[in-house]
Fold these 2 entries.
Entry 1:
Amino acid sequence: MKRLTLTLGLLALAAMLAACSGTSAAPASGDPATGAPSGNAVTVTAKDLAFTQAQVTVPADEAFDLVFDNQDGAPHNVAIYTDAGASTKLSVGEIFAGPGQKTQSVPALAAGSYFFRCEVHPDMQGTILAK
Ligand SMILES: [Cu+2]
């Protein structure tokens, strides 16, 4: 009887953990109904094969527009990941040669720190702080 209780307890715990990890999936995106710009915009600039901002701050839980200003002749983009492990992509901008600007719509990010880099030059890196 004691063993049965323990087994049921473990099963309940496993179910709870599964439910938890289920809810921490990808962050909700902006407003799919209207697709209207959120009004939040942040600029990231590339110059001399580096991002000029090591860190940019965005509002948490709100979709925003990332204006990418590529001042190089070289092609760059901005790819946002959950962390520096770069295994989970959250937003990927178009790769283009500058000088020029492109705007990418980024879905809402929960408060926290995120990693971005150029996919052509992975050494070009920065941090997005959502708060
Ligand atoms: Cu690049």
Entry 2:
Amino acid sequence: MLDLVAEHAPYRGELIAAFERVLDSGRFVLGPEVEAFEREIAAWIGVPHAIGVSNGSDALLLALQAVDVGPGDEVICPTFTFFATAGAVARLGGIPVFVDSAECCYNLRADQVAAKIGPKTKAIIAVHLFGQCADMDPILAAAKKHGIPVIEDAAQALGAKDKGRQAGTMGTLGTFSFFPTKNLGTLGEGGLVTTADPDLAEKVRKLRVHGAKQKYFHELIGGNFRLHELQAAFLRVKLKHLNPALEKRRLNAKKLIKVLHEKWGAVMPIVSCVCRGQGQVMDFTPKTVLLPFSCHSGESDHTWNQFVIRVVGHGERDALRVKLAAEGIQTEVYYPRSMHEQACFLQKDANSYHSSETLSKETLALPLDNIETYLPSVL
Ligand SMILES: Cc1ncc(COP(=O)(O)O)c(C=O)c1O
């Protein structure tokens, strides 16, 4: 799906220079590269505090720990997401309380969040799936009413916006992943926690190093969640190239939407999105290809970390996948099983997550980086 060698080729020299800089410095853990990266990414996002951590899964864990999520606490999150969202809650002994997702924009039903808040609710995780922000206003309003913190899982959405607000700046804390497939991916693993709250930032910094501000004096039970100097140095190089890379993704998404519409008869699923509680799910005949929908944001607010279409009807997505594979086109299914259906989280009220289950059967991610090379062969 993604040719990382080709992606790195234009600035290979800069990456090698970054490697040499770290090699020659003799500093490999929490040194000047991590500090500089934290300053640079905080400025890019427009957030007061950015803390570099080991990966996006640990970023979620740290954010949840920072707001004191512990055994028996409930945390509301979408069921249609990557495992780490719900996994981080469970790693702390918390209980993920799932919300269904919208069949058009794939993000959680923001209009259903308030109804899930109960006496044990300790936090809400809003996931900005595939590079598009969840509809934050109803979520923030419900959280504010009950005095509950909101964590934005922006692992896939660096640079995405909701009504002009950057992902990772709207909630109490934001979390990001720098896994190589992300729009800002490093040459290994990395993650980030963002916040405007200096006390929470300080707490996350402590938790990152076994809960100690002063070495060997432990105030909290943290862990080793450090971002490596080398990864920070690579991220600094790649951050300089991020804006043009995002522009290219947006341009490619626009082209792909146009071509899929013209050649496959692919259509937009809806005119106004259900995630905001005002649209309606429409019926489409089997085999209809539904285009990814930017529900409440302008085109430039979606970062297209994944370009995900839907193919309506039983088995139709899988049939198309096989056909594309025969043409040498790799696709991916995000996600074949929602969290409420996972063996470790099995919940019985499956009827409440009808849309997520439909998405699991019908979504298909197409490659976005090399559309020029594969489009002529399929269409
Ligand atoms: C929505 C979401 N949350 C969290 C993560 C976890 O990030 P990482 O792989 O860096 O641990 C991912 C990674 O794919 C993700 O997509």
